[in-house]
Amino acid sequence: MNYDKFGVAHATTDEICDLLYQNPEVDISKILVDDPYVYNNAVKDFYADLPVLKLYNLDTADIKKYDTVNQSLWFMSEEYLNLDIAQWLLDQCKTQDEMQRVGKELLLYQERDLFPLLKQLKYIIDTWRANNIVWGVGRGSSVASYVLYLIGVHKINSMYYDLDIEEFLR
């Protein structure tokens, strides 16, 4: 294994395999592979039975189908898989204005088939809270979504600042 002038490790695929055989717990995420094509092809061959990799062909992939398969592989507990995210969000509303805003946003999320993503985000945020993990206040156009505010993705109340959801879901 070699190190460049910035201290970044570079290795061949053989060297990475040797590292993993010596210590399966070793973190190889920071090592750059000298020949990524050999590495990527080896991963594809090893995991060829995964449905997501069977679909992975950038020239002919049906993006919607590819996204659906990827979402089916996300880990989350049954509690979140079975969660009626729309009802949960509506239950968080305290005023009629909030309910109207959430209803409007939910229609936009539903049009884009993003309910599985909302469930995943709720799972992630709840997991972070349970483990005292700190995340950012919010950034970019995502702060225009009141639904994401209710889930806890960001701390910016888009209704208070009169931010239009269309800024996020373009």
**Share of helical residues:** 40-55%
- How many β-strands, per DSSP? 3
As for the number of domains, it is 2
Kindly report the oligomeric state of this protein: single chain
Tell me the Rg in angstroms.
21 Å
Individual helix count: 9
Major sheet summary line: 3 strands, mixed
Q: Which descriptors apply to this entry?
A:
170 residues; mainly alpha; 3-stranded mixed sheet; 9 helices
Write the layout of secondary structure elements.
Blueprint: E1 2-3, E2 9-11, H1 13-22, E3 32-33, H2 36-46, H3 51-55, H4 63-72, H5 78-81, H6 85-91, H7 96-111, H8 115-130, H9 146-151
Parallel strand pairs: 2-3
Antiparallel strand pairs: 1-2
Describe the structure.
- This protein is mainly alpha-helical.
- The chain has 2 domains: 2-72, no CATH class; 78-167, no CATH class.
- 50% of the residues lie in helices and 4% in strands.
- The chain contains 9 helices and 3 strands.
- Strands 1-2-3 form a 3-stranded mixed beta sheet.
- The longest helix is centred in the middle third of the chain and has 16 residues, at 96-111.
- The protein is elongated.
Short description:
The chain has 170 residues and is mainly alpha-helical. It is built from nine helices and three strands.
